[in-house]
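User:
Care to share a sequence and structure tokens?

Assistant:
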Amino acid sequence: MDVFEPQGLHYFTAGEVRYLDRLELYKTEKPYEVTFLPVNVTQPGARCSNLSLKSWSVELRDFSAYRQSFSTDIQGFELDVFPTSLSVSELKDLGPVESRYHTESKAYLQKKYDAKKVFIFDTTIREAERPSSDSGVLLKNQQILGPSTDCHVDQSPNSVRRRVQHLFPNEAEYLLRRRVRVINIWRPLVWPCHTNPLAMCDWRSTTPQDYTASDHKTPVWEGESLQVYHNPAHQWWFAKEMKEDDVLLIKMYDSEAEKSNGDIAMCTPHCSFDWNDPSKLLQLRQSIEVRALVFS
């Protein structure tokens, strides 16, 4: 499948992306990650993960000036404008985030995707460096996380369907007959974002063999994500010049893609990356991301 090649693209950079290793282990043991201590395991040295990751050097291209040529339907991600009434300090506080930002995000997604129903099921605030004085800093009972450094997709198709059934037991059958998408709205809280910026892989440059299901267990949900194997054909993009009202829309799942014969993007492998650009300024990354089920 051909990928988009904008004319006059003016910025390329090199970066490091961590992919899952192609180990024999994963033929007999499913990849997994547990994001809390396995307190119910009595044996010492209990593993929280069997993920083996390797860094690969990749070329990343800036699509800031070509936002009109990217969409969640085609590449799996896009750069859009979504103003918010919240200040940066309010966007770090789950109180106003849940009472106001979620409301704004739902209205934005309903209009953007002509959605009949939008449900936000997760919010994550990230900082490039955690405060060294306390490794367990909590934000209104929610941990402030560092940037995610492994190439992944947040939810597998099976996990999305299970989440819909869990959240809407009385409506699930009806909702799953509609078009179901999972869209993440990613917003930087500093501009520009130079440290650990977010990178997205053009879905059309991937193959089904690049993905493998991985159990992802948190204190509140036992989910399944997709880990990604390295493929030299992958085409990586990032938005170098995001402004205050800019957001990245990143698709994690689309039921319509499962029956489109490849014409609609299914998902977007993504991660933060180490920017090997000696000219960059050290503006530490801060960001907020909401994850939403979008029913059209």
The helical segments are 94-113, 157-167, 172-175. The chain has three helices and 17 strands. The longest strand covers residues 117-127.
